[in-house]
Fold:
Amino acid sequence: MSDLRAQFQAASNQVGKPPKPRKAVQRESDEERAVKAERQALAQHTTSLLPGGNAKKPYKRPGEREGRKGGLFVQLVLVMAVAGGVALVLDPSIVPAEWVEQARSLIGKYVKI
Structure:
């Protein structure tokens, strides 16, 4: 028992050093952030009208959306034309006989039928 008490007292005298405190993280002030943003903006900004680098790709600002390219109208017209062509092939009586004669006479002016 006395041996245990001696070990306990010896251990309590050898208390370890406290851990070192963490280094303070340097935080940027508002002014430093503003200066940094200004430098970045100046680096990205260009006033030249001449295309540089890859002229096929125009400069695109961050967050800028591309313009509408269209194509939906063309797709709808193509689908309607295909559907009309299929309907005409399946049932030629859809087109009135007068229209067929007018089309043949119009085409006959330019092409020998």
About this structure: Residues 71-112 form one domain.
